[in-house]
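Title: Prediction job returns without error message
Component: structure pipeline
Severity: low
Priority: P3
Assignee: unassigned

Description:
Job completed but the reporter wants confirmation the result is attached to the right record. Sequence as submitted:
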Amino acid sequence: MDAIRTLLALAPALAQGITLQYWHINTEAFGLPAVRELIREFERRNPGIKVEERYQPNAYTGLLQNLQAALAAGNPPDVAQIGYLYTRYVAENLPFVPADELDRRYTGGRVLGRYAPNIRALGLVEGRMVGVPYSSFSGGASWRP
């Protein structure tokens, strides 16, 4: 979700009258209502910028396969939700603009500067900011005896 919040912060520096395509794996039962609400808020704050969300089936494997096909066809999305397990793969195999470079260029580093260093590190591969962390999970288990 923080990918969309990052777009919210970067939006004033972006050109008006554009559509951003956002690929994700969220379903109605897995985060899609929250994604849509964030998109509505983004568009409300930035009337000249529209976000077109596109669900990609088969989780991250399906998204990456579709992303590779879109890249080969010359029509990739502007933003894609990629799982942490695939960050190194993206860094080594797919073209991207480092998130910290975008942050410096458009906000003077204000957006990523709000993240704690350990959270920013989740998006790093060999010192390059491949992505912006959008969630964190502390695993746990519980049971009823």
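Comment from assignee: result matches the submitted record. Helices lie at 2-10, 32-45, 59-72, 87-93, 99-107, 117-120.
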